[in-house]
């Protein structure tokens, strides 16, 4: 007989969330129910195959999230190190030969290339996949992973719904995942 202690949320199996996520999809639920009702080798193989595909997608999403977070953090550290390397008084002349100030040199001209956070990514496949994203999705990824804002904070900043931000970021990660998986094939 189960005690009330066993039914508390703290005693939930660690893989329960993973299984709940798997069973949320109707197709997976149908395969699972079929395997439980009729436990043949073919049904169990279908269930195992579906779960392996699902789990691989979860692992890839986790990898992409971790990788983007790492590169965003690395970019932030690199930018902070550059910024703190030399304190600049912007109104002083840049050097004795030129009359322009350091402030004038910082303003990008039309003939200068401005670098963004994407240039901090060293993996060419990941860089290429991110370059293919629409500007809005790149902006949402930047705010999430570089500036480490929550989806709610991004939504408030851009005056859109939190769900739209979540959907955009998830869509961007899916596009990156697809591009990277296509690049891994021979």
Topology diagram in text:
Blueprint: H1 16-24, H2 26-37, H3 41-85, H4 102-106, H5 124-131, H6 135-146, H7 151-158, H8 162-184
Condensed summary:
The protein has 186 residues and is an all-alpha fold. The protein is built from 8 helices and no strands. It is elongated and about 85 Å long.
Return the average pLDDT rounded to an integer: 80
Q: What Rg is obtained from the alpha carbons, in whole angstroms?
A: 24 Å
Helix content: 55-70%
- Distance between termini? 55 Å
Number of strands: 0
What does this structure look like?
The protein is mainly alpha-helical. 66% of the residues lie in helices and 0% in strands. The chain is built from eight helices and no strands. It has helices at residues 16-24, 26-37, 41-85, 102-106, 124-131, 135-146, 151-158, 162-184. Helix 2 runs antiparallel to helix 3 (41-85) and helix 7 crosses helix 8 (162-184). The longest helix is centred in the middle third of the chain and has 45 residues, at 41-85. The radius of gyration is 24 Å and the shape is elongated. The termini are far apart. 11% of the residues are buried. The model is unreliable at 1-9 (pLDDT under 50).
Features:
mainly alpha; elongated; 186 residues; disordered N terminus
């Amino acid at each position: 007989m189960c005690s009330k202690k066993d039914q508390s949320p703290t005693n939930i199996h660690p893989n329960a969330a993973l299984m709940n996520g798997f069973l949320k999809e109707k197709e997976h639920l149908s395969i699972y129910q079929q395997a439980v009702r009729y436990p043949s080798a073919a049904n169990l193989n279908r269930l195992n195959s579906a779960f392996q595909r699902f789990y691989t997608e979860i692992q890839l999403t986790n990898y992409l999230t971790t990788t983007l977070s790492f590169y965003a953090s690395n970019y932030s550290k690199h930018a902070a190190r550059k910024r703190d390397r030399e304190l600049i008084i912007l109104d002083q002349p840049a050097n004795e030969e030129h009359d322009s100030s350091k402030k004038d040199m910082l303003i990008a001209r039309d003939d200068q290339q401005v670098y963004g956070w994407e240039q901090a990514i060293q993996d060419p496949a990941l860089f290429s996949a991110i370059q293919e994203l629409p500007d809005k999705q790149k902006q949402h990824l930047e705010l999430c992973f570089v500036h480490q804002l929550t989806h709610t904070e991004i939504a408030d900043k851009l005056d859109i719904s939190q769900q739209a931000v979540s959907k955009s970021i998830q869509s961007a990660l899916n596009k990156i995942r697809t591009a990277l998986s296509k690049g891994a094939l021979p």
